[in-house]
């Protein structure tokens, strides 16, 4: 996932938001009425049917196996590449092989930022190679690189204590303490702009992560208006600490930064797979993940897992001949990592039908063991979802956390008033691997993926089938 | 640390060996006698003196701060390099600055294996860069590299199921399940030899580690007699799994391996710092760590921590004016990583005085929170150490584990019958960072290092001062 200005704070929100507690349950009972609550509880048979099929039946380990084949075959799938387009074709064929043909692709223009050679060398106080990953959309350095002294700051406030003269011609290293991703990532997304405004020739950021084995983490950043675009990159926690220790001891640190990249735009596609509703086919319950990834690792976790549990929903329902009243649409978003580009295009293109989106779901914060949902919506909407989640106590996935901007892509739709949810999962180590070469299949677990698939499918089915719409 | 044939199994031993339990305590009481046990218990004041000085007094965070300055200044210190020799000079000066002048260096010939460019590229089934670290003493490939198909095995037994024809001209990838370091490392140390014996043109090994963020782990290996020396390297857990998945699906995997290195010998030095005993200066209690490191990371954990807690022992005793009866010798071993070269030279040079070594200690398996000691020696020797360890209950460092081959360097001396011990510490994550670029100061913790320093110093002092020698 990326974090846009819009969706930036979902991780924090999850942490601070409250679970639905017994008091709320009573409120929900009054709001929903006993009959409706009983109706929802009546989906226990369907739930068992789906859980059994995925956890012990024919679909067991299918999500993991298909995801592994997919990410092994294509590897990283950055926005704008042929690889991404081929991977979209592959997913379409994989779906057709299941006898599902109601597949639409919608073209849109996407950015293509292509990483070239990247090399950071500490020249003083001693020569050392510094592991590095340039940030998305970063400009290149001149061929000989940028050589300059480093100023280390731990916050924008500390940067502001320096005069422009102090920063002019320097490299700024942001070395913030990692609190939460949502809070700390601002040094990655806005660091270059703020450093450039004070005359810096380049900026570096301590990777936005709580743990490292000398692992740099890439990610998006955006240049502000009216400032010089300076080269910008992430270095590892270890090297950031090393440079800070030198700096704090009063030793001058000089780096040479060489970074080369190209920028272009290409055509890519959002992919929509419809599993048509029997009574209200115009009404949509959307499940989704993004198919593009960063250019490091395999994008197995970000967001291969979310992609595949969403792919599995119509596949499993068709195999089990379960036909909900509303249509379930599985969307594979494109170009999420460089700014939710696919989601914005979808929102614009489908604005007229916005009222038909009953509920929208995305998994883009890991597919570790599911714990429940992070839900946006009014009180009644959350009450309905809470009742649905009660059906998943046996797999420990009954937690509802309130989150006004869940997901990444879907936040674009949710801000228009559509209720929705992202997968709430046991993702404490998500940011250890996020946007690194370590985002490979090893992060995924067969059984946890099965749990995610079963949960995602059953929840989507129930919401698409119950007698009442999710209210706005 | 490395693991030689000699010292290979200390990690396993620690895991399977038993703590000294109450039954043993009674046995010890009979062996040692109440008077001697009371004498040892009487060192509680000295213990408090040392613990206070390090944990809350003037030495607080000194170990961490000095270690950080040292590893930041020199970085990696591979055997045979000028950097290693300069780092030895630095440690001597740091000791002299404390007013300690009884310092001897002993020259010896050490190997210098210098890593050059290393690059592994998967060519089939798709092009992918494979992160790699060549293994110590590996020969180079031809300039164009070695290009061959991969055969994946998880054990030597599985390799043996292939005919020489199957392996001839291939690259063997060892992909063993990590059980313990001592058990699994054999695929790193002997893999090339066994693959070459069957006609392989190169061998790769899954990094000897239980966890990874796409981190390759280097380490030593030795070519056997009478087989072709083939290039050999470690790849990451993630890439090993990727290649195995392709292989298991029946897809042909072709790699190009380019590795270049040089091999030479140089002169290096063991460093001996003597803090003279008042009554039996000829008798030695040795504390030690190795000063050389691998060429990746900073060697902060392997073995900067062990080096500095051993450096601290005479320094603290001098500062506190504590004078034990026997001499405490702090040794900084050289060239441990390429085969305990410094230790073997010391053992040979000092063989005549072997009988004077009362007890020998090394810390080379991490300086995380100390838990006690892993002790080699006869029953009575272990009983004495167990009584000493009872003094460290307040810092949770009273555990004695029986280990017939503790430490790395000191195993060379211990096998001659000298009793000794290595630091038993909370090192569950040691092999996450071991021999990687991640072996930097971030692995170390100020307070845990203080605990290690205080424990190491007090234990050494007490053993050097008690009325009885440690029996053989």
TrEMBL record, chains A, B:
PA domain segment(s)? 146-242
InterPro entries associated with the record: CPQ (IPR039866), PA_domain (IPR003137), Peptidase_M28 (IPR007484)
Q: Which GO terms describe its cellular component?
A: endoplasmic reticulum; extracellular space; Golgi apparatus; lysosome
* Entry keyword annotation includes Zinc: yes
Q: Name one GO biological process term.
A: peptide catabolic process
* GO MF terms held by the record: carboxypeptidase activity; metal ion binding; metallodipeptidase activity
For this UniProt record, give its keywords in alphabetical order, as a comma-separated list. Carboxypeptidase, Endoplasmic reticulum, Glycoprotein, Golgi apparatus, Hydrolase, Lysosome, Metal-binding, Metalloprotease, Protease, Secreted, Signal, Zinc, Zymogen
Where mainly found?
A: endoplasmic reticulum
What compartments host this protein? Answer: Endoplasmic reticulum; Golgi apparatus; Lysosome; Secreted
Q: Where is the Peptidase M28 domain?
A: 270-446
Signal peptide (residue range): 1-18
So which domain of life are we looking at?
Eukaryota
Task: Give start-end ranges for the coiled-coil region(s).
Answer: none
Which family would the database say this protein is a member of? Belongs to the peptidase M28 family.
Assembly and oligomerization: Homodimer. The monomeric form is inactive while the homodimer is active.
| PANTHER family, per database record | CARBOXYPEPTIDASE Q, PROTEASE FAMILY M28 PLASMA GLUTAMATE CARBOXYPEPTIDASE-RELATED
Q: List the protein's name.
A: Carboxypeptidase Q
What species is this protein from?
A: Diatraea saccharalis
């Amino acid at each position: 996932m990326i974090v846009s200005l819009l969706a930036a704070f979902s991780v924090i929100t999850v942490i601070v938001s409250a679970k639905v507690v017994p008091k709320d349950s009573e409120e929900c009972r009054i709001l929903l009425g006993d009959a409706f609550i009983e109706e929802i509880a009546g989906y226990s048979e369907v739930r068992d049917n789906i859980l059994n099929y995925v956890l012990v039946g024919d679909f067991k380990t299918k999500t993991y196996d298909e995801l592994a084949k997919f990410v092994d075959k294509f590897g990283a799938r950055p926005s704008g590449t042929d690889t991404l387009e081929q991977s979209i074709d592959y997913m379409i064929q994989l779906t057709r092989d299941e006898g599902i043909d109601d597949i639409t692709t919608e073209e849109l223009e996407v950015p293509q930022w292509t990483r070239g050679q990247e090399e950071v060398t500490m020249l003083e106080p001693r020569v050392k190679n510094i592991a590095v990953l340039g940030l998305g959309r970063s400009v290149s350095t001149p061929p000989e690189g940028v050589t300059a002294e480093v100023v280390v700051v731990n916050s924008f406030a500390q940067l502001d204590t320096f005069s422009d003269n102090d920063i002019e011609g320097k490299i700024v290293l942001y070395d913030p303490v990692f609190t939460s991703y949502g809070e700390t990532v601002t040094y990655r997304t806005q660091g270059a702009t703020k450093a450039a405004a004070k005359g810096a020739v380049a900026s570096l950021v301590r990777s936005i992560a709580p743990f490292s084995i000398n692992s740099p983490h890439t990610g998006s950043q955006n240049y502000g208006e009216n400032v010089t675009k300076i080269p910008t990159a992430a270095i590892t926690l270890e090297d950031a600490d090393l440079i800070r220790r030198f700096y704090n001891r009063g030793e001058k640190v000089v780096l040479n930064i060489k970074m080369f990249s190209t920028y272009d735009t290409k055509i890519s596609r959002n992919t929509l797979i419809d599993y048509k509703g029997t009574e209200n086919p115009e009404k949509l319950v959307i499940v989704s993940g993004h198919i593009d990834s960063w250019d490091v690792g395999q994008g197995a976790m970000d967001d291969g897992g979310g992609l595949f549990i969403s792919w599995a929903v119509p596949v499993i329902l068709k195999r089990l001949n379960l036909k909900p009243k509303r249509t379930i649409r599985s969307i594979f978003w494109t170009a999420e990592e460089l700014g939710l580009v696919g989601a914005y295009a979808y929102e614009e293109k489908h604005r007229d039908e916005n009222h038909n989106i009953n509920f929208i779901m995305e998994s883009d914060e890991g597919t570790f063991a599911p714990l429940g949902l992070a839900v946006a919506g009014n009180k009644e909407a959350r009450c309905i979802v809470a009742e649905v989640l009660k059906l998943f106590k046996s797999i420990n996935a009954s937690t509802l956390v309130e989150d006004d901007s869940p997901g990444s892509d879907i936040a674009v739709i949710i801000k228009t008033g559509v209720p929705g949810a992202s997968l709430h999962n046991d993702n404490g180590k998500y940011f250890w691997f996020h946007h690194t070469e370590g985002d490979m299949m090893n992060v995924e677990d067969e059984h946890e993926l099965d749990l995610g698939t079963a949960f995602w499918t059953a929840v989507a089915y129930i919401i698409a089938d119950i007698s009442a719409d999710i209210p706005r």
